[in-house]
Design a protein that fits this description.
By secondary structure, the protein is α/β, with parallel strands linked by helices. The chain is built from 14 helices and 18 strands. The strands form 2 sheets. The chain has a 15-stranded mixed β-sheet with strand order 9-10-5-11-4-1-3-2-16-17-18-15-12-14-13, with helices on both faces.
C-alpha cells in the first residue's frame, strides 16, 4: 500500500477493484495507480477476510496466466466476488502488455466470464481490451500490437516458452478465444476524444459486439480513453490504461513519494525469465564483475533424481559471497536452449522445475539475511512470493516503467520486512538489476 496518505482519501472506499493474472503484472498495475495518486493495496491471491485498511484501489494478484482456462476463470470470479464485497465500483482485469495467451485463452475466457458475472450491472454487456503501455514501447495500431518498432510476433514473443505469440492482430487473437463478437476502436476515433469513443462504443454495442480492442500509440491516447471508460463496470487491459482512470474518481497525482521503510540486509537477484530483455540484464550483471550462478534445468533434474539438494548447493555457493554485495542466481537462457530442455523434460515440467527451485532458493536466501530481493519473470515471481508466504505488499517508488520496489512481511524472516522488486520478463533497461539495488539504497 502506498504511504502517500492524502487527506481527501481518509477512510476511502475501494473505487477500483483489480484482478491481475500474474504477480509482476499486479505490481506493474499498482505502480501506475500509485503514480496517478491512488492509495493501493496489493494482496496475494483472493483473501479470506475483508480488507482491513483503507485504499482507493485493491489489486488481487493471481497466478492464472498459464493455468488451464477453467481454473483461471474460477480464480478470477472468486477475486471478482471478493472485490465487489469490498465495495469496488469498477473492475479492472489486468493482463500482460504482450497479451500473453494461447488459442485456448486465458484472456478471452476470463473477460467473458467477468462480463457474464456483471450482467446484472448497467453497462455490463460490454468491455474494452488493450495491452497498450507506451512507456514500455507497447502500442496498438489498427488492432495490431507492436513491441517497439516490431510486430508482436516478430519481437521475440513468438519464442515464449509458455505463451508463444504468433499473431499481432489482437482482434483475431481475442476472437479465437471468445464467444462474443470482438470489434475495434481505432486510433482515429481515440484521437477525437471522449465523446467520439463513447459514440463508437454505443455503435459497437448496437451491432452486438461484446468486446472491443482499442488502439493507443501514446499516453495521450490512454488519457483520452480514460474518461470514456468511466461508466463501464469492467475494463480489461494491460497496466497502461490505469493512468487515465484515477481522474474519473476525482483523484489527482500526489507529489508525496510512496515512502517505504529503510532498506537493510543483503542483496540478491533471482531470475527465471528467458525473455530477451532479462537475458541482456543477466549478461550486464555478469559483465559488471558481480557473482552469478547459472542453473541448468537438466542438471537440476539429474541432481534431484540422484537425491541431491539443489537448494543447498546454491546456498553453499551464495553464502560466502552475500556479505560482499549482490549475487545473481538464474536459469535464464536463449530460446534454443529452452527448447532443448523442453524437448527432454516437457514444457510444463521444465517450467515447474525451474519455478519451484528458484522459489525455494529465494526463501533460503531470505532466511540467510537477504532483505533486498529482485525477482525476474512473472511465473518465477509468483512462485517466489508464494514460497515466501507473502500475503500483502506496500507499493513504493518506480525503478523502471512497470516495476516498483515493494515492501512486505514474510514468514521466512518474521522479525524483519523484505524489500522486493518483481520484474516482468520483458521489462527494464539492460542495467536493471544493478540500478534497482542502487535505487533502493
Amino acid at each position: 500500500m502506498s504511504h502517500a496518505q492524502h487527506g481527501s482519501h481518509a477512510g476511502a472506499q475501494v473505487r477500483l477493484g483489480c484482478i491481475a493474472d500474474d504477480f509482476t503484472g499486479a505490481t506493474d498495475l499498482a505502480n501506475n495507480l500509485v503514480r496517478a495518486g491512488m492509495r493501493v493495496v496489493q494482496v496475494i491471491g483472493v483473501p479470506s477476510q475483508p480488507l482491513a485498511v483503507a485504499a482507493d484501489a485493491v489489486v488481487v494478484a493471481l497466478k492464472s496466466r498459464t493455468v488451464p482456462a477453467p481454473e483461471a476463470v474460477a480464480q478470477s470470479l472468486a477475486a471478482l466476488h471478493w472485490l465487489r464485497a469490498q465495495g469496488a465500483g469498477q473492475i479492472y482485469f489486468k493482463y500482460c502488455s504482450t497479451f500473453d495467451s494461447t488459442a485456448q485463452g486465458n484472456i478471452g475466457p476470463v473477460a467473458e466470464a467477468l462480463l457474464d458475472a456483471l450482467a446484472d450491472v448497467p453497462g455490463g454487456d460490454f468491455t474494452i481490451a488493450t495491452p497498450a503501455f507506451p512507456d514500455n514501447q507497447r502500442t496498438v495500431f489498427k488492432g495490431h500490437l507492436f513491441v517497439g518498432d516490431m510486430l508482436l510476433n516478430e519481437s521475440g514473443m513468438q519464442h515464449h516458452p509458455l505463451t508463444p505469440m504468433q499473431d499481432a492482430n489482437l482482434v483475431r487473437v481475442l476472437q479465437a478465444q471468445c464467444q462474443r463478437q470482438v470489434g475495434l476502436i481505432d486510433y482515429q476515433v481515440v484521437a477525437q476524444g471522449e465523446a467520439a469513443i463513447r459514440a463508437r462504443i454505443a455503435a459497437l454495442r448496437a451491432q452486438g459486439v461484446g468486446l472491443a480492442v482499442v488502439d493507443a500509440i501514446s499516453n495521450a491516447d490512454l488519457l483520452r480513453l480514460g474518461p470514456a471508460l468511466k461508466d463501464l463496470p469492467l475494463v480489461t487491459a494491460g497496466s497502461g490504461v490505469a493512468i487515465g482512470l484515477p481522474a474519473n474518481f476525482g483523484i489527482t497525482p500526489s507529489d508525496q513519494a510512496s515512502a517505504l521503510p529503510a532498506p537493510s540486509g543483503w542483496q540478491a537477484v533471482v531470475s527465471g525469465s528467458c525473455s530477451q530483455a532479462t537475458n541482456r540484464q543477466v549478461a550486464a550483471f555478469i559483465q559488471s564483475g558481480r557473482p552469478a550462478l547459472a542453473l541448468d534445468p537438466l542438471h537440476i533434474a539429474a541432481r534431484q533424481a540422484a537425491g541431491a539438494d539443489v537448494v543447498a548447493d546454491a546456498m553453499a555457493w551464495a553464502e560466502p559471497l552475500l556479505g560482499q554485495g549482490p549475487v545473481l542466481i538464474y536459469s535464464s537462457a536463449d530460446p534454443a536452449a529452452v527448447k532443448a530442455v523442453q524437448g527432454q523434460l516437457g514444457v510444463a515440467a521444465a517450467g515447474a522445475l525451474v519455478e519451484t527451485t528458484l522459489a525455494a532458493i529465494s526463501r533460503a536466501l531470505v532466511q540467510r539475511g537477504v532483505r533486498q530481493l529482485v525477482v525476474a519473470g512473472g511465473e518465477t515471481s509468483g512462485a517466489c512470493v508464494q514460497a515466501l508466504g507473502i500475503r500483502q505488499m506496500q507499493i513504493g517508488p518506480q525503478i523502471d516503467p512497470g516495476v516498483p520496489w515493494c515492501f512486505a512481511q514474510t514468514d521466512a524472516a518474521p522479525a524483519a520486512g523484505l524489500h522486493l522488486a518483481l520484474k516482468s520478463g520483458n521489462f527494464g533497461t539492460d542495467d536493471f538489476f544493478i540500478k534497482a539495488l542502487a535505487r533502493l539504497a
